[in-house]
Design brief:
2 copies of one chain form a homodimer.
Chain A: H1 4-25, H2 33-43, H3 49-56, H4 60-73, E1 76-80, E2 88-92, H5 94-116, H6 121-135, E3 141-144, H7 150-166, H8 173-176, E4 190-196, E5 199-208, E6 214-221, H9 230-244, E7 249-254, H10 259-266, E8 271-272, E9 284-289
Parallel strand pairs in A: 6-7
Antiparallel strand pairs in A: 1-2, 3-4, 4-5, 5-6, 7-9, 8-9
The structure holds a DNA duplex.
Chain lengths: 290, 290
DNA sequence: GAAAATCTCTGACTAAAGTCAGGTAATGCT
DNA sequence: AGCATTACCTGACTTTAGTCAGAGATTTTC
């Protein structure tokens, strides 16, 4: 009962029955589960029939029939794809959007009622984030995004908050806020966000300079996503992006109060170099030739 | 993407697809899921047909057919119940036990491979415990157990460990180890463990004395299960048990380093009284008339 | 000791999900 | 231009899950 395997299995049991309840609640709108799932996939922005089929793991025959039944019902319309008339694109009709909204309301209500039952909301949410990240870690998508997008700003906010907690002297955000944004856009640099489903769980910036190297800045991984080697993936992706931008030399600075970071750099081909800027926070400096 | 409801829904999505994978893996033994579930329920000690039916939420006709198919396969035998010949009792044959063991091995292997993928094992397990407790909180069973049972000892071990962390001066286990066990058995007292599925997540002892009152000792709730009002349920159950044992007056001691406990007592009809023992750890004393 | 209730089983269904083998039209490749 | 490939559709089928009414045996209740 106390060994790790039993604990995982207990979790599986608990979650299996909860998921069953979730599923059956989707039956309340007079539509079989399969059709409801297709409708919701379309509502969530999956329009390509092949994409939906793949996402839901359906046979093409079955998928076709489910789509047909949704069309007959008047909630979905399909058209040929613009660029390739073999492919079909599905979209919701007005009625379809109403139905989708009803499913969304149902899901939101369930989530809210779950949250309302528990007083330790923050701890529970943190635990859920962690497990969701672990379960979907093969599906974490690293995407280049604008450093001023909502996702990027969320990550940066969390990043600064964490620096504030970890540095003995605190961390003054105003010092480093946004002036770098323009250097972290193509073609000078880039900004990469790791998205797990809809939640940003990590980021890194590549900041172009005029000194013959680019800098890696603001590497952050959400606490809930640590242990998934996401830092390494983010660094790899940044190095790839740098190579594609024709950058041959990378530098970065960090602080010895963040030992995981130093550890990561040391084991991935970075070598320590002398201080190369006068920023007050960092006390460790690295360089890597691409 | 950042609001609590979205986070819960992200968790639901992540877990739904994981559970789907778990389910389909049970199909690898040439038996439909329904039959596999019945076989596993029997393997886990549910022998009464009505009990299994209830647990799996099956119609009696369907249940009957599933049982029959398992019998035809030679993995299950049924007999009439000893005391009531209308009821049937199912048990595994030798082949059945082998099949059950294969399912168990599969589940264990899956749990292990999940754990092996993640470096933050302890944090992940704690998160899983927390969520499993939250999901199954309606199904937490409070059971009277021997204070020296494995479950009770696990709880007590965790309890002492926590006291050690929370008391400034630490906590010396040897002082309070086991001498009370005999006073926490019927008819002098009792010991109640809160079980969530197979995991003990809380406990409380009722210790009989010869001074005209009984003491409540060792109230503990697992960190993963806090916020579920389990402490209150444990106290209620103990008071009920005390009433059934004919005890009219309860006392307890606690420490101001455990503010949740003091808070609980104050809001549930206990009144503070002067020190009534010379135990070095407690600094707060309460009494309640039943 | 008769009537009511309980437990399981059987027969006769239905609905949903899934499989498989073509078929049609569009597209890609040489 | 011709052939292979791709994307989707259709028809014909099977399996699984589930429902419902009633039968048969047994136990409980009065």
């Amino acid at each position: 009962m106390l060994d790790p395997v039993s604990r995982v299995r207990r979790f599986n049991r608990a979650v299996t029955s909860a998921v069953g309840a979730l599923d059956t609640s989707f039956l309340g709108r007079g539509r079989p589960l399969g059709a409801a799932r297709v409708l919701n996939a379309i509502g969530h922005g999956r329009t390509d029939v092949a994409d939906i089929r793949d996402y839901l793991g359906l046979d093409s025959g079955l998928m076709s029939r489910l789509l047909r039944s949704l069309e007959d019902e008047g909630v979905v319309e399909t058209h040929a794809h613009e660029d390739d008339a073999r492919r079909r694109v599905a979209k919701l009709t007005r009625t379809g959007r109403r139905e989708f909204a009803a499913y969304e309301a149902l899901s939101n209500a369930q989530a809210e009622s779950f949250l309302a039952k528990h007083s330790q909301r923050d701890a529970l949410l943190a635990a859920m984030d962690m497990i969701a990240s672990a379960l979907t870690r093969e599906r974490v998508a690293l995407t280049e995004m604008d450093p001023q997008s909502d996702e990027a700003r969320y990550c940066l906010g969390e990043y600064y908050a964490e620096l504030g907690r970890r540095f003995k002297q605190g961390f003054d955000v105003s010092l480093s806020r946004d002036p770098d944004a323009k250097d972290m856009r193509r073609p000078r640099g880039t900004f990469i966000v790791a998205m797990s489903d809809t939640l940003p769980i990590g980021c890194v910036g590549l900041k172009g300079t005029d000194h013959g190297y680019a800098e890696i800045k603001r590497l952050w991984v959400a606490p809930a996503a640590r242990g998934l080697r996401l830092g390494r993936r983010l660094m790899d992706a940044t190095e790839d992006a740098a190579r594609r931008l024709g950058i041959a030399l990378l530098r970065l600075d960090t602080n010895s109060a963040l030992p995981e970071a130093g550890q990561l750099y040391r084991t991935t081909g970075w070598r320590e170099i002398p201080r190369f800027n006068d920023d007050p926070y960092p006390d460790l400096f690295f360089e890597k030739q691409l």
